[in-house]
Amino acid sequence: MTRGRAIRGIGAIVAAATLSGAVGRATAHEIKVLAGRLVTEPGTRDTVYLSWGHILPVDMPVDAEAIKDYRLHTPSGSVSYLATEGYSLHANEVTVEEEGLYTAEVTRHPSLYTVVVDEHGQHRHLGASKAEARAQVQDGTIDYSARSHQFAKAMLISGHDLGHGHSHEQASPSAGEPATKVLGHDFEIVPLDGPEAWTAGADLRVQVLFQGEPAARQDVFARFIGFKPDQAWCFAIPTDNEGIASIRVDRPGTWIIRAQKILPAAVEDREQFDVESFTATVALEVLP
Fold it and tell me: What residues are paired with 190 via a beta bridge?
């Protein structure tokens, strides 16, 4: 069985990130899952960790208490829980034993945040409900408040041959038949083609699902690690009526794909927050 254990090595990368910074800016970001190597060979060790913030691959540490589920799925279907501890990257060393496609996933507990505009017109995020923010804000006005639901996963290729030797036509199933595992998150991005199709210059097809159903006309964003500026995305496209989008991945490297869905809060919740925000990301390696 593949097992994860918390390690501290990657945590040194964010040694300069203060806890106050992590708390103060956290609500503006989405969580991501990454790995030391997204392409490896059976019998090797890898490191799975979490990313939080705008800067990729690492910006700020993550509060363990915010994490609901953190798991690794093997190609054969077994699942192992990954360790979390304190404020860190929650780096886990895992043994890659099987050939095929591993999926690392994380979900956060729902959280509230409120965006406040101060007297200088600057936006500030408070980790509080709308009612709590009113009590905290001395100067400024409340822009909006949200309950945030966040989901992320990373696709780890074990066995280098998975990324070579097959044409896109061979790899692509028909629409609605994903080649990668659907985890059942409330909001989820599912690559429709296997890693044979994740090659530079190709169109990478994904389907966005909301509560298990296709999310039509949903904006999908993508960027590769190294793209600047840090807060921007280099590709955007809406999904079609089946929730499917084709992303032109024009270069090799690690790509992050993101989608967000905003819904009005239920009437009984509007004193506490205005909208429900659902965010999903998926990380994968595009091969030459």
Answer: 207
- Give the burial class of 288: count Cβ atoms within 10 A of its Cβ; 0-12 exposed, 13-18 middle, 19 or more buried: exposed
Please state the pTM of the whole predicted model.
0.84
Two structure tokens written together for 69:
């589920």
Quick one: 242 and 276 in the same domain?
yes
Q: What is the pLDDT of residue 17?
A: 33
- CA 5 centroid distance within chain: 21
pLDDT tens readout for residues 125-148:
888 999 898 888 877 788 999 999
Whole-angstrom Cα distance, residue 93 to residue 210?
A: 31
Domain termination residue (choose one: 98, 131, 146) = 146
| Domain around 116 | 111-146
Task: Please tell me whether residues 32 and 118 are part of one structural domain.
Answer: no
Q: Residue 249 and residue 205: Cα distance in Å, rounded?
A: 10
CB contact at 8 A, 69 and 110: no
Helix ranges (DSSP H) in 26-155: 130-136
Q: How far apart are CA 29 and CA 54, in angstroms?
A: 7
